[in-house]
Amino acid sequence: MTDIVTFGEVLAEFMATRINQRLGEAGQFAGPYPGGAPAIFIDQAAKLGSTAALVSAVGDDDFGRMLVERLKADGVDTSSIATLADETTASAFVTYYDDGSRDFIFNIANGACARIAEAQFGPVLEGCKLFHVAGTALFSEHMIELARVAIGRVKAGGGRISFDPNVRKEMLDRPGVREALTGLLSSTDILLPSDDELNVLVEREAESEAVARAFELGVSEIVLKRGGDGCRYYDGSGMRELPGFEVEEVDPTGAGDSFGATFCTLRSQGMAAADALVYANAAGASAVSRQGAMEGTSTREQLDAFIASHS
Ligand code: ATP
Ligand code: MG
Hints:
Blueprint lengths: L3 E4 L3 E6 L12 E7 L1 H11 L4 E8 L2 H12 L7 E4 L5 E7 L5 E6 L22 E5 L6 H16 L3 E5 L4 H4 L4 H9 L4 E2 L5 H6 L4 H11 L3 E5 L5 E5 L2 E5 L12 H14 L4 H16 L11 H10 L2
Parallel strand pairs: 1-4, 1-8, 2-6, 4-5, 8-9, 9-10, 10-11
Antiparallel strand pairs: 2-3, 6-7, 11-12, 12-13
Helix pairs in contact: 1-8, 8-9, 9-10
Bound molecules: adenosine-5'-triphosphate (ATP) and magnesium ion (MG).
């Protein structure tokens, strides 16, 4: 029995060491750092003491071995991560600009994790309390179909579904993607959008209308991630807003995944939403204070200490 399960990319990330270093120019990169939204999510879930498994695939290479070892060391069940002899572990290159924007080059759809097989979900979904879908993992029709199958199994077993849309407008213009994502919303219990992602997805300008539309589709909790401004939480009965913790932002990548995993994991452990939001806010703030997307995940003790020292 595994409490929390997700699927999708696990990757080796390389970061340009200089601000404003374009990805097309020669320069220095730091890495490989473990990354990939689903991998960060599941690492954070495991650190909070739930049984947590990632369904993914890596190549038979040093990146793949490093990633599996790291997840294992953090307590993740890695038995559903396949090692594929003829594939290469996914990777990503990122650079930051002084206006806060980022550029990425991803080797994901052409990496080992694009070859996840349905059979890998085998026993791991048995008794699953929460299945998380990271929008970044829905990069092909095959991956969307895997999500659909897994969601069906988890729902049938009484589990809940969380969804971090991570959508970009360009992605929604691809044939079938908007329909697939809207369909996914109607299976979602906890929705974790950031910025205007929900507005874009349900095609509503105002936040209140977008939220109402999501509830109409069947969502029961919405946590809007608002970067340094914290978060807003909606359930059927109202709205709650929390300011962000004051920290120095060193590396924003991965904050959303640490935040989402903390909220969903603590909710699935039975914590009230009001308390889970404080922990999630602390997890996001801790994540941005550290370099490397997965370096910012935290244990319950670390979050307690963070909250105590920032209140
Ligand atoms: P990602 O870059 O991983 O996709 P996201 O856009 O999904 O992130 P954000 O809103 O950037 O999500 O961050 C998630 C949460 O992390 C925020 O809701 C907030 O709680 C916390 N957080 C992010 N940035 C900061 C910051 N600069 N200071 C304090 N807390 C932050
Ligand atoms: Mg962000």
